[in-house]
Amino acid sequence: MRTKTCLTLFNRLNRFFLKGYVCLPQPTFNVASRQFSNAYCVWHTVGALCLERKPVVTQELTPLEQRYFQYLQKLEIEKSYLSDHEKRHLEDLRIAEKLKKGEVEDMDTVSKQTAQDFEDACIEEFNKYKPNPRITEADKTNDRKSLHRKLDSSLVLVVKQKLGNDYRWILPQTIHQEGDTLRQVNSFVDAHRKSMFRLRERSHQ
Q1: Global pTM?
Q2: To which H or E segment does residue 175 belong?
Q3: pLDDT tens digits, residue range 16-63?
Q4: How far apart are CA 153 and CA 53, in angstroms?
């Protein structure tokens, strides 16, 4: 009874501490010698590959950042000097007033394009621009295999691999073989990942 209790406690501790690893120690009890014999697992060095897609667009401003941005804009308007465009606009108004009174003798001093004309052209050009949506079709359908989603965040490639008796979402990895460098191991992981993606693409065609 005491031996059975020890074995049960030992198995529970192993499952708690070593769950998810490549292998688990399997203790055996020799009845003749009344001694424990542990078949310890072998630890392996693995090479993993981390593929990251950087953000494509800037992140949305937080409420605090929005308030700070509005404060800076207000401060700039209150304490800033006139820009070249604003000075040009005032000069155009002054010349237009002289034209009404007939005080302008040299018409060469009159600009062919006023500051207002330039501003209207810029606004018209800006209205033609339509930014791409931040929410893509992959976001709407929750397609986690697509790179065209979560454009303002970083994405990391993970694969489902078997560790011990369970399947875990981890970085693509493989066991290091004796004689290979870690660079060669990672190259193998990359080549294997590309071949798997090609097989998936062919199966969907």
Answers
A1: 0.51
A2: strand 173-175
A3: 333 434 444 444 434 344 344 444 467 777 777 788 889 988 888 899
A4: 8
User: At residue 125, what are phi and psi to the nearest 5 degrees?
Assistant: -65, -40
Joined tokens for residue 11: 């198995």
* pLDDT tens readout for residues 94-136: 887 877 777 665 666 566 778 888 888 999 999 998 888 889 9
> CA torsion angle for 140, 145, 149, 154 (degrees, to 10)?
140
Neighbours of 184 (CB within 10 A): 13
DSSP output for 31-76: TTTTEEEEEPPPP--EEE---EEPPSSPPPPPHHHHHHHHHHHHHH
Distance CA 98, CA 92 (A): 10
Contact 124, 133 (CB under 8 A): no
The CA dihedral of 35, 36, 39, 44, to the nearest 10 degrees, is -120
